[in-house]
Amino acid sequence: MSESSSTPKFLNRELSWLEFNQRVLDEAMNESLPLLERLKFLAITDSNLDEFFMVRVGGLQMLRKRRHTKRDPAGLTVVQQLKAVSERVHQLVADQCSCFLDQLEPALAEAGIQRAAPGRLTEHQQTVVLKIFDSEVFPVYTPMAVHADAEFPLLINKSLNMCVRLAPGEDGETPRFAIVPFGSFPTRMFRLPADEGYQYILLEDLVSLFIDRFFPGETVLEAVPFRLTRNADLSVREDQAADLMAGMEEILDARRESDCVRLEVAESCSRPTLAFLKAALGVGGDDVFPARGPLDLSAWMSLSGISGFDDLKYESWPPRKSPDVEPTGCMFEMIQRKDILLTMPYESFEPVVRLIDQAADDPAVLAIKMILYRTSRNSPIVAALERASESGKHVTALVELKARFDEARNIGWAKALEQAGVQVIYGVKGLKTHAKVCIIIRREARGIQRYVHFATGNYNEVTAKLYCDVGFLTCDEELAADATSFFNAISGFSVPQQYRKIAAAPFLLRDRVLELIDGEIDRRERGQRAHIMAQVNSLSDPKLIQALYRASRAGVRIDLNVRGICCLRPGVPELSDNIRVTSILDRYLEHSRILYFYHGGAELVYISSADWMLRNLDKRVELLVPVEDTANRQRLIAILKSYTRDNVKGRRLLADGTYQRQRPGKDGRKHRHQEHLYRLASEAEKMLEQSQRTVFRPHRAAGKEE
User: Fold this and answer.
1) Kind plus residue range of the DSSP H or E element containing 487
2) Are 457 and 469 contacting, i.e. CB atoms less than 8 angstroms apart?
3) Tens of pLDDT along 411-443?
4) CA distances from 648 to 29, 385, 477, 583, 661 (A)
5) Residue 298 gets which letter from DSSP?
6) Is 358 exposed, middle or buried (0-12, 13-18, 19+ CB in 10 A)?
7) Which residue numbers are catalytic?
């Protein structure tokens, strides 16, 4: 295909995301993986689909209601996108059901983990099930009759429910229905006694067994589980919200009553019951997804972690100690000696937590400034900020209230921090603050010193064990000055400055990346070597894609690792011949953003909080930070090169939007990127321990320790 071909230059964003979810499902189908890890991947695909419908499909449906006519970069209208999405998701759901019922469930049963069929319970199990129903289910649930003149009950988003069809009333014709809402019931799977292994029964099967108990004197014709997904693509009108926190709380309330964008129902559902549910929830046929197996497979994530089946799980890879960080000691002194690069989850996130802990308790620390986008439920970092403020330090925290699906938690943290005396900022008006930075100001003998932590991931010690991210600790004066100017710009009414080294979105980050791409084009056109490497989660920004196409046509070699959405078409003659796109799906979620430009041999390397998407570059506050010291820069370059070599978990994006799994070459040598990085981290820790054992440390008299 030439550049002038009628074939669109861009892949559709929504379909590209669904291909990402297909790659996750492929891991669930991969028989070489441990069984419970496959189950975990299956649960992730269903959880991913929930968010996809709440945000992306919900947004498209609102555009359809507004009769939006603009086509996307791939040339599709909103109606065409919704139709294509529906077709692809119906196939995906069918594949999920097949994976669970035909592959995973039989294998789990053989391994000793079995879902009990309601009609095949032992006598003892029947007794236990009845006891569970009488004590934990029947007293809690309330069936709700639905009449023609009554409003359909308000059901919780993503919750499981039972639709019950009763025998017609006095006229003998009009069907009667009732809903048994399960709400946010904490237990979906109830363990049953078994001679060996692990047996469980599902909540919906338990309710179905005793459904007559809810309707004494009535004839129950049918009891069908169903689940609805509501539109969550709602945002506060910040130009009209005098109080952002109150506005966000209103949005959370609005989501509880928003339109239904997807109806999941058991495949066995009768036509009358399905017609009733469609009419009551206002959904069309394309928005109904019948399932051959259980609904909400994301619930099986909890089952993937059951104890006693370690042979069905991955070998443990505990995070290793960074060779640049002493196990104990002052973090400030270590950062003074050298810049420190941390690669999570291969290396521990502990040094970051320790730094903020020490800052909270150090009398020499005057102030702490940081951005909190997503944090853990019991965040030690938030606790340290509260402690620092209570001890008299000046603490400023920007808590992004608009972080989707973490709004409620962030509202809670913002209130708690304010009560501790922290100066809290609720983000920037009209933008999401997605940058990751912490600044610590300390009074030292040589004067005021600033220490900075930049990162690609959140201040969350839980996800730091699951996500691949990069953290960078430095006291470089220019970077520290930039970080301070950046923070002041977003915390006050300051006009964003021209920074010395960093670049920030939404004003200069895209321009800086385009400038770097153009630099490679210029050098290649002058006959010099040119090379671009980048790792991002998503690539959909049309301007950046066009710039990469220009670079490819100029002969620049481009290697991209894009985990999820990629709207760029690689390998198209006369357009993207020199672009190679890899996606890696493995035991950890790839989340780092790392950029490399050969730059005439100077080899410029950056880490960033921003994906290459329109929303990140135009609608978010993001950072692009150079890593300049030789050792850390070379580590990041090696990581980028390792991605391109993965022939175990790597998949290559083809021009038609499909992905091809990479295989070892003729020599049979395998390279698995994540395993490679973990082995390097383990070897570095081992070498550190060996070097420490060779150092003699004499005991000294009390009071004379050095």
Assistant:
1) helix 477-491
2) yes
3) 787 888 989 999 988 878 888 889 999 999 999
4) 15, 42, 42, 11, 8
5) G
6) middle
7) 434
